[in-house]
């Protein structure tokens, strides 16, 4: 496979990811994983497989359209597996691939950190707002 662009290493004809390069594919993958719905979908799926509507209820606030687009992007990137049983109506279940489980574990660590430090964030916001308030 011939690679071109800022992620290609011409001397070795291999992929060299550089998330800071505008056209590097790693940027799109990072966006899929760290976008609001991608992060929440991956973290939810770390708990186990979900059918679409159950996952939508778990990820409170996501629209059907956004969840479908998010899952499709994560499936394309190799993080999510979609299993459709040929029944009427079709039974579709989503689960993490091994790659998805690895990224979800890292996201869970970040989520737990943010949740654990939320009082510090709230205090920082309060101090910032107080300092910026008109006098």
UniProtKB/TrEMBL annotation:
Source domain of life: Bacteria
Entry-linked InterPro entries: HTH_HxlR (IPR002577), WH-like_DNA-bd_sf (IPR036388), WH_DNA-bd_sf (IPR036390)
Keywords for this protein: DNA-binding, Transcription, Transcription regulation
Protein name, per record: DNA-binding HxlR family transcriptional regulator
Species this chain originates from: Amycolatopsis thermophila
HTH hxlR-type domain residues: 24-122
GO MF, one annotated term: DNA binding
